[in-house]
Write a structure and sequence with these properties.
By secondary structure, this protein is of the alpha/beta class. It contains ten helices and twelve strands. The strands form three sheets. Strands 5-6-7-8-9-10-11-12 form an eight-stranded parallel β-sheet. Helix 1 packs across helix 2 (63-72) and helix 7 packs across helix 8. The relative contact order is 0.14.
Amino acid sequence: MPSLGGSPLSITSTLPTPLPSLSIPLLGFGTWASPRHKTTSSVLHALKAGYRHIDTAQGYSNESEVGAALRASSIPRGDVFLTTKIWQARGSVEKSYQACLESVERLDDGMGNGGRGEGKGYVDLFLIHIVLAGRKEREEVWGALERLVGEGRVRGVGVSNWGVGTLEELRGYARVPVVCNQVELHPWAQQRELVSYLERNHIAITAYSPIVRNREKDNPTLVAIAQAHEKTTAQVLIRYCMQKGRAPLPKSDTPSRIEENADVFDFELTHEEMGRLDGVRKGGKDEPCVMVAEN
């Protein structure tokens, strides 16, 4: 079976990061477009199904509901990996810092389920959601996140939808390591140049839209592989992502699908099947649902 760190893939597998003290659970649960009235119950169901990596963002408008699920669960805070993202710079390091701190407090008030107490909640990973307007804004937000790291309110910082150019720019002002880049990845959007850069620089990869929003559910290659394993096409795509060494972030508000998307550790895609999925792009060009990071 494919492995990380020498062990077969399992629901407890993690991705290493540049920080020895921080690893990312391999299977994530996304909350993009999850309606606020459903988010808490969906996250609780995901935690019950074994997910320990929950992804949200300021732009999703459901951080409070994700935090409510964590507080309502019986799972110790230290056993759940929380990721959120800041969507825009606020005009100064101080204002961006306050906006990020508000996210931390919405997600974890520090008072329950084995938290650090005294209102010192934290998130495990805080990302800059997009490349923002320019370098000035990027430096501002990165400085705010570094302050939160120094205060123990954030364990690691990273980016989302950043390409090689903006990542190289970041090296010029970052004082803490870039832990992760969250980008769209699946067989129809492989972003090979960017992935190669991230792997060379030991930056962890989390993948949104790993099941292509079901756009390719009838693709003959994908369907044939799913049938061979008696799995759904979504399960095959989630497994494909994990065997590539990335953390997929499937999302659903349907309890049965939440469970189904976690049932991906009892089969393995062969080298030949992985190659067939690698070859599905038309003309070898990426066809994203959202975007490829060419900045």
